[in-house]
Each structure stands twice: as structure tokens, then as C-alpha cells.
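Example for tutorial group B:
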């Protein structure tokens, strides 16, 4: 990538109306984006032919959102964030999914019955440590597969209250799990 300070200076000048600075900025950023997009697409197992689409979408977003850049900050992190979001959007539109051949990991996945029972007991013990309302919400959503709306209707709570309680319960469970692992 070209000197980040140079890019920042070019963007500042472009925002003040310097067309030549903006043209130079676009050329430099486009070249850098092609490398970033090409490597990212290859890592995702996608054809490099999609690279130009990601570059153009990123340049367009940069143009449309240029007034949101904080001139006191370097330009490069702002550009990286835009590029990352445009790459993710592109992969989602193209139906990107990671594929892992489960047969290659069959031995790792095969767990003894005792370990499965121990894990279930651990989970039950951790759930039992939650306040009743939080426990019922976690069981309803995470175990029984109900929606927040369904659990809320059953418990007389709003959907938002159920989501907040679920978030707090999951955070408590995560903290309890970390304490048990250390």
C-alpha cells in the first residue's frame, strides 16, 4: 500500500475539491484494493475474477461515504473497513459457505458415550445455576427451539425483554464456563 500519510493527504485535498488529487487517490487505492480483494477471494476459495466487482463496490462506497472519514485519523483503516464489508457482502450474495468434509474428521467427532453424558450433566448444572426466569428463557430458545416472541408470550414478557434476559443469561453461562475451565 502506498504511504498512508500520502493517501490521507490526497483524500483531504480531494475533499476540498482537488480533482487531480482525487484521481490519483482512486488510482492508488484501486491498485491496493485489487491485491487485497484478490488475496481475500483466493482465501475464501472464490474465483479471482470476482476481484474487480469487489474493487468497484469498495471504490463506490468510498466515494459515497468520503464525508464520514475523520480527517484527524489515517485513511487506511477506514478503507480497510469498507473493503472488508464489501468483500463480506460480495461473498454473501454469491452464497459463500465454508465446506468441511466431515469424513476427514470422523475420528475427532466420535466421542465416547461417557463424555457425552458428562457434557450433558455439566450443561444441566450450569443451567441450574441461573435464576429461574433466565433458565426458562435459555431452555425455551436454545434447547426447545422456540422464538423470543413465543417464549415471551408464554412467560408474559415482551420480545425485547426476552432477548435482553437471554443475552444476560448467556453471558453468565459463558463466565461460569470460563471459571470452571481455569
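The residue assignment follows.
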Amino acid at each position: 500500500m502506498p504511504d498512508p500519510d500520502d493517501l490521507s493527504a490526497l483524500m483531504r485535498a480531494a475533499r476540498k475539491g482537488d480533482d487531480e488529487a482525487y484521481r490519483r487517490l482512486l488510482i492508488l487505492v484501486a491498485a491496493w484494493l485489487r491485491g487485497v480483494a484478490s488475496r481475500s477471494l483466493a482465501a475464501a476459495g472464490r474465483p479471482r475474477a470476482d476481484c474487480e466487482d469487489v474493487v468497484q463496490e469498495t471504490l463506490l462506497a468510498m466515494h459515497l461515504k468520503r464525508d464520514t472519514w475523520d480527517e484527524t485519523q489515517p485513511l487506511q483503516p477506514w478503507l480497510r473497513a469498507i473493503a472488508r464489508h464489501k468483500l463480506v457482502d460480495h461473498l454473501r450474495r454469491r452464497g459463500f459457505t465454508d465446506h468441511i468434509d466431515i469424513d476427514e474428521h470422523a475420528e475427532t467427532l466420535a466421542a465416547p458415550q461417557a463424555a457425552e453424558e458428562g457434557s450433558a450433566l455439566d450443561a444441566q448444572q450450569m443451567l441450574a445455576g441461573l435464576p429461574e426466569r433466565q433458565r426458562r428463557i435459555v431452555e425455551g430458545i436454545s434447547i426447545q427451539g422456540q422464538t423470543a416472541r413465543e417464549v415471551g408470550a408464554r412467560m408474559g414478557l415482551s420480545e425485547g425483554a426476552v432477548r435482553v434476559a437471554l443475552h444476560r443469561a448467556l453471558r453468565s453461562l459463558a463466565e461460569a464456563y470460563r471459571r470452571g475451565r481455569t
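Residues 111-118 have pLDDT under 50 and may be disordered. Compare this with the pattern of hydrophobic and polar residues in the output above.
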